[in-house]
Design a protein that fits this description.
This protein is 58% helix and 10% strand. Strands 3, 4, 5, 6, 7, 10, 11 and 12 form an 8-stranded mixed beta sheet that branches. The protein has 19 helices and 12 strands. With 594 residues, the protein is of the alpha+beta class. Strand 8 (233-235) and strand 9 (241-244) form a beta hairpin. The structure holds flavin-adenine dinucleotide. Flavin-adenine dinucleotide binds at residues 161-164, 169-170, 195-197, 255, 258, 263, 434, 437-438, 441, 443-444, 447.
Length: 594
């Protein structure tokens, strides 16, 4: 089953739902010419359909192999990667000073959706490189930037992110990998990391690892962590590759999904220690890591969007072909395609509406990240940074939860064939399953949303966003368009639930932290369902006034209505779950430990 990037939907989401067009008009993107967006996405879609999508199944079936300390990827993978870098796709949003194209992150976010939809295991490699670029650009020395930044930006040398150890997963502060200072100013790193994505492979001749480790005199916990750049091969002064560094893949994992993306155990120090270079300051590695993590979290959210869209496209095609039963009221022999059945229509609409909502949430996060570094005035930058910080955990967790739900519905629509590997529906479901786990589990994202993002400045970022959502609701109501049905009132109720629940949680973060933590996951869901509903409504309103692109406004109004009347209505129940449900969670030991 092939993949076609839904360019018109993506452009509507980017320009109108996520606010790219307004930000460009306000001057926050300098002289960026927004007209090129469509052309970039068209080309990305073509590359994805022609090169990446056909390799998706190949990668799933062949997986990867580890021999003599080196990982071999699936057939066609190294060639596809070479074509990818040669076409410049790795460098879309990289800084121009180091060979990048300098395009907005928002454009790259839309491209990331396309790579993830066509071949999520392939797209995972550049996703991590993007984070590495950001950390090096923000915190690296000029000397390190000179050697590594342009190679990372072009993709000639991809990056890895190495935090996890057996005893240090969500609790990064528990890591034990050791770093020793040396006389020449570099460091020697020893230890073992687990679950390292693309920790080794045969797609490029060098890999740039970003590794968290601890100095001998470091304070305990996250305050004693430093970040190091460790090349797989040392780089000679003339730029050629030198000796093999002491960092090896000593094992690979056998996984539920993402078979083509190597997940490696990395061993450092068997031969005296891997040579590493400090990024940022000693013991301040977590700050550098946070720079990498925001990008990576958005990227993983976009994986959720991409896989969801791929599963939807496939389920829609299947539902138009597979014949079972008759439409209500039809008589005579024969059977109809299953898409005539209201229950199948509901599943497809659910897939489509949820995917559209998380797409816009992710793109809006990217626009906020762009404005936070591109706007000319500091106040706009700082408001945008606060918006990006608020949206990041929602973009990561809500989108990846939706990725799982939508791919599960995709299997369901295929009936028994969905459970059989040959349709490919099962692969999307298996591949999606890791996304709520890595890059900070969705539970950790929810806690971040409540305890840091909601709590910041007495909830200021949340109240500002709620005002904007209320304004969208008012515009829906003022449109008096009967096609919106009860969208206005449903969204108004959802926003009111989100407002009350936010205030309730804010009061308890300090006074009753277990109440706040117990409600974190349903709160994130409530946030996503309300935000997504309002964003789709805003897109539908914009579509009604558009003349410049081929957009069928009635389609978007119906989609927004479906979301408001079928999904955003869950806000009231989620409000009760947060507020009334905490006591039973706090009393859970009586059940769980009895
Ligand atoms: C395929 C794959 C690829 C990966 N790629 C990378 C990579 O490239 N680099 C890297 O460094 N790591 C990588 N990881 C590791 C990944 O980021 C971790 O698995 C993840 O952070 C969770 O850590 P853990 O597995 O130790 O689970 P744990 O931290 O043990 O969590 C188990 C459960 O407990 C919950 N939990 C834990 N602590 C808390 C808390 N304080 N409050 C509430 N709930 C809590 C979690 O939400 C989760 O549900 C990868 C993992 C996989 C499987």
């Amino acid at each position: 089953m092939t993949y076609r990037a839904p360019i018109n939907d993506m452009l509507l989401a980017l320009n109108h739902g996520a606010g790219l067009q307004a930000a460009v008009k306000a001057g926050h993107y300098g002289d960026f010419d927004a007209d090129i967006t469509a052309a970039v996405l068209e080309e990305a879609g073509k590359f994805a359909s022609d090169v990446l999508a056909p390799l998706n199944r190949v990668g799933d079936e062949n997986g990867i192999k580890l021999d003599n300390g080196g990982v071999t990827t699936a057939p066609g993978w190294p060639d596809a990667y070479r074509r990818w870098t040669a076409a410049g796709w790795n460098a879309v949003s990289g800084p121009e000073a180091f060979g990048g194209q300098g395009l907005p992150l928002a454009i790259n976010a839309a491209c990331t959706e396309i790579w993830s939809a066509s071949n999520v295991a392939f797209g995972l490699c550049p996703l991590l490189t993007l984070s590495a670029i950001e950390a090096l650009e923000a915190h690296g020395t000029d000397e390190l930037k000179k050697i590594y930044l342009d190679k990372l930006i072009s993709g000639e040398w991809p990056g890895t992110m190495q935090l996890t150890e057996p005893q240090a997963g969500s609790d990064v502060g528990a890591l034990r990998t050791r770093a020793e200072r040396t006389a020449d100013g570099s460091y020697r790193i020893s230890g073992t990391k687990i679950f390292i994505t693309y920790g080794d492979h045969d797609m490029t001749d060098n890999i740039v690892h970003f590794v968290l480790a601890r100095l001998p005199d470091a304070p305990p916990g996250t305050k004693g962590i430093s970040l190091f750049l460790i090349p797989k091969f040392m780089v000679n002064p003339d730029g050629t590759l030198g000796a093999r560094n002491d960092i090896y893949a000593s094992g690979i994992e056998h996984k539920l999904g993402m078979h083509a993306a190597p997940t490696c155990t990395m061993t450092m120090g068997d031969k005296g220690g891997a040579v590493g270079y400090l990024i940022g300051e000693e013991n301040r590695g977590m700050q550098c890591m946070f720079t990498m993590m925001n990008q990576a979290r958005l990227g993983v959210g976009l994986e959720g969007v991409g896989i969801a869209d791929r599963a939807y496209q496939q389920a829609l095609a299947f539902a138009q072909e597979r014949r079972q039963g008759r439409a209500v009221g039809k008589t005579g022999n024969g059977s109809d395609p299953i898409i005539v059945h209201p229950d199948v229509k509901r599943m497809l609409m659910q897939m489509r509406a949820l995917t559209a909502a998380v797409r816009t949430i992710c793109y809006a996060t990217a626009v906020a990240l762009d404005v936070s570094v591109r706007a000319t005035d500091m106040k706009t930058r700082s408001l945008a940074a606060a918006r990006a910080a608020l949206l990041t955990p929602i973009a990561k967790a809500f989108s990846t939860d939706i990725g799982n739900e939508v791919t599960s519905l995709g299997v369901q629509i295929h009936g028994g064939m969905g459970f059989i590997e040959e349709t490919g529906a099962a692969q999307h479901y298996r591949d999606a399953r890791i996304t709520p786990i890595y890059e900070g589990t969705n539970g950790i994202q929810s806690i971040d949303l409540v305890t840091r993002k909601l709590a910041a400045n007495g909830g200021a970022s949340v109240w500002t966003l709620l005002d904007e959502l209320t304004e969208i609701v008012s515009r829906v109501e003022a449109s008096n368009d009967p096609a919106f049905g009860t969208t206005g009132s449903k969204l108004r109720d959802a926003v009111a639930s989100l407002d009350r629940t936010s205030r309730w949680l804010l009061e308890r973060i300090a006074s009753a932290p277990n109440d706040a933590l117990a409600g974190a996951t349903p709160y994130l869901r409530l946030f996503g369902s309300t935000l997504g509903g309002c964003m789709l409504a805003s897109e539908a309103l914009a579509a009604r006034n558009l003349t410049e692109v081929a957009v069928d406004a009635s389609r978007h109004v119906t989609l927004a209505r479906f979301f408001a009347e079928n999904i955003s209505v869950q806000a009231a129940a989620l409000e009760r779950t947060v507020i009334d449900g905490a006591d039973a969670v706090n009393a859970a030991d009586a059940v769980l430990l009895a």
